[in-house]
Amino acid sequence: MFQYQMLFLHHMPLLDVFLNARTFSLLDHDQVSWNSVIGALADSESSVSEAVKYFLNMTRNGWVPNRITFINILAAVSSLSLSKLSHQIHALVIKNHLANDSCIENALLACYGKMWREMNRAQKVDGFTFATILSACASVATLERGMEVHACAIRACLESDVVVGSAIVNMYSKCGRIDYSSRFFNMMPIRNVYSWNSMIPGYARHGHGDKALKLFKHMKLDGQLPDHVTFVGVLSACSHVELVDEGFSHFNSMKEVYGLAPKMEHFSCIVDLLAWAGVCRRTNGHKTVLGSKAAEMLFDLEPQNAVNYVLLA
């Protein structure tokens, strides 16, 4: 088995003969053999489309793609400029919790970048494509590339599109330019929940908890209902400025006012809020109970994460 897998990798001149359906069907397939075939085909200009077929067959046969699979297939999809499939593979990356892998992030960025350039030359770039590429730039904190895409959005007269605008706000925030992010957010003619959710957590992430909370008030005054993502940013902001009472007030309002059931991220913020303020063992009864509940939930969900134990030490 191992010898056959090595042949996939080391006998590239024999691809057209060796990598055919009959030969591959004779082997006992495992993750390595699938990845070897897909990678070899993706590297061969004349066989790139075959790489996609093998990838689809792999998933249909019940195999779960890993980081090597995704890196290989993204290279193939990039060469073929298959935008729909690229989005589907990106969704699989997120589903398999590999979106933060730096190699996959770079592969996604290269894939979207190539498709974007080709679509741009053909004048077929729409708002969704711009937003997707900006999201890829944000995920790897590529400011220079993100600014290039922003400039192209301006030329395409899509800068005022709310989806593209929200992606621009998010990109600048995650690339370390919260000043650019804030400036663009303030110029947006229309905002939706994604716009607010890009700016509020952005302020919190950069240590501007007071600005995040002020913006949250403006969001409510503007008539926009917050969602789970909003409250992660709000609770994180309260933690940064050590506003324990306000943090608990916002946490309680999730269910009481907006009908949102708190998730693990919100309980994690509560634990972090208590730890930052140094009141884990010195709060009133209600907060102690809530803090204990938050800790228990984190321990159940992430029993091997030492950070959870340190926070309540």
How does this structure look, described?
It is a single chain. The model is unreliable at 1-15 and 280-286 (pLDDT under 50). The protein is mainly alpha-helical. The N and C termini lie far apart (50 Å). The chain has helices at 2-10, 15-18, 21-25, 31-43, 48-60, 67-80, 83-95, 102-121, 127-139, 143-155, 162-174, 178-187, 193-205, 209-221, 228-240, 244-256, 264-277, 285-301, 306-311. The longest helix has 20 residues, at 102-121. Helix 1 runs parallel beside helix 4 and helix 14 packs antiparallel against helix 15 (228-240). It is built from 19 helices and no strands.
Q: Which term fits the overall shape?
A: globular
SSE class: mainly alpha
On the 0-100 scale, what is the average pLDDT? 79
Query: How many DSSP helices?
Result: 19
Helix content: over 70%
Number of strands: 0
N- to C-terminal separation? Answer: 50 Å
Rounded to the nearest angstrom, the radius of gyration is 24 Å
Uncertain runs are: 1-15, 280-286
